[in-house]
Amino acid sequence: MKGGEQKSLNVLIADDDPSDVFIVSRGLSEFSHKCNLFDAKDGEQLLMMLGIDPSTGRPSTPNPKLPKLDLILIDLFMPKIYGLQVLKMIKRDRRYQQTPCVIMSTNLSDYDRSQAEGMGAAGAIQKPATLSDFRAAIRSVEFSLIFNLDPEPIQSSQNHRLS
Questions:
Q1: 46: closest CA among 79, 4, 5?
Q2: Do 79 and 45 touch, CB atoms closer than 8 A?
Q3: Which residues fall in a coiled-coil region (predicted)?
Q4: Chain-centre distance of CA 160, in angstroms?
Q5: pLDDT tens by residue, 86-112
Q6: Are residues 64 and 50 in contact, defined by beta-carbon separation less than 8 angstroms?
Q7: CB contact burial 131-150 (16+ within 10 A = b; e otherwise)
Q8: What pLDDT is attached to residue 83?
Q9: Which of 5, 6, 100, 151 has the largest CB neighbor count within 10 A?
Q10: Above 90 in pLDDT, residue 141?
Q11: Is 118 helix (H, G, I), strand (E, B) or coil?
Q12: What's the pTM value of the predicted model, to 2 decimals?
């Protein structure tokens, strides 16, 4: 981090593809901070972890093991609930209005990007097919602004499954 601070970053990713979660985990681990990655297999599980009722969008009790999040990554095309609908519910909840959310998709159109940003997403990125693609995406303006980081090798990284 800039200024010599060390801060552990808490990132929640919702993606139904384990290989994409792995790529994101490895890509995030390239920054000079500890990154705790929490994952959900679909939008419904993500909302339940955050304490948002998936059927109504109303606040409920979040998973007590989930820390304050620095970033939420949302796959656009997930089972059960479409990524933009998940984003909309998250941004309606006062607890997460200031939490940066980024939409990811293998097939990201300009329309999808515009919709996501109009709903309050901090950005939308083309889902990388490889680790080197994700390295390039994570160094993009969106991630640099979200994390306020200098890209340096990481000291440690952890993945967490809360369910």
A1: 79
A2: no
A3: none
A4: 14
A5: 999 999 999 999 999 999 998 889 999
A6: no
A7: eeebeebbeeebbeebbebe
A8: 95
A9: 100
A10: no
A11: helix
A12: 0.81
Per the CATH hierarchy, to which homologous superfamily does domain 8-147 belong? Response regulator (3.40.50.2300)
Q: What angle do CA 102, 33, 103 make, to 5 degrees?
A: 5
SS3 136: helix
- Cα distances from 96 to residues 115, 156, 157, 160, in angstroms, run 18, 26, 24, 20
* Tokens coding 118: 């109009």
**pLDDT tens readout for residues 23-71:** 888 777 765 467 888 999 999 999 999 999 999 999 999 888 889 998 8
Q: Among candidates 63, 54, 64, which has minimal Cα distance to 93?
A: 54
- Contact call for residues 105 and 76 (beta carbons, < 8 A): yes
Helix or strand or coil: residue 18?
helix
Quick check: 138 pLDDT over 70? no
Sheet containing 9-14: which strands, arranged edge to edge?
A: 123-126, 101-105, 71-75, 9-14, 35-40, 157-160
Place of tokens 């709903």: 119
Q: Name the residue with tokens 């010599």.
A: 4
Q: What is the pLDDT of residue 151?
A: 41
